[in-house]
Design a protein that fits this description.
Length: about 160
């Protein structure tokens, strides 16, 4: 297999990774803001609805205002759980930081400034970029492991089941 030169690496690896992190950051930002807006609107509407006389019709129809208030409360709880479960804000910020770090390294390399001012600039670029990507992958794996541990902490283990019987 032939070795990659700096142009190939920049085009096939670095630009691809920058695009991926940029896309994922934007996706997580969009969903975080959607769920946050859902919470804000539902929370703002509840006091308004609570102040309406329960016998007040809407467009000539009887409305179960308390049911609507309860459903909005459930929507707030669901939105809160979804944001916590999928970590949209944390992913948005982490992916954005990684994309910006990759951009920064690319510009330093392309301009030939320190630390990319020596003859080993390409090798140093590859090491630094791959370390950034590896660190991000490790953070993701650690986060996935923590999620797994939290869900298994909520499940009774064999000893708990035996003691409970």
């Amino acid at each position: 297999m032939a070795r990659m030169n700096d142009e190939q690496y920049l085009a096939e690896r670095l630009e691809d990774q920058i695009a991926w992190y940029d896309r994922k950051s934007g996706w997580n930002q969009k969903w975080f803001k959607r769920w946050q807006l859902t919470q804000i609107v539902a929370a703002a509407v509840i006091p308004f609805l609570a102040g309406i006389d329960p016998k007040t019709p809407l467009f000539g129809m009887e409305v179960k205002w308390m049911l609507i208030i309860g459903l909005l409360g459930m929507l707030i709880a669901i939105a809160t759980a979804v944001i916590a479960l999928f970590k949209f804000q944390e992913n948005w910020v982490q992916y954005r930081m990684t994309a910006e770090q990759l951009h920064h390294e690319r510009f330093l390399f392309l301009t030939g400034v320190e630390p990319y001012h020596d003859t080993n600039a390409f090798e140093l670029l590859v090491q630094r970029i791959e370390n950034l990507i590896s660190r991000e992958n490790s953070l993701w794996a650690q986060s996935a492991q923590e999620k797994s541990n939290k869900s298994s902490d909520n499940k009774p283990n064999e000893a708990t089941r035996i003691e409970g019987n």
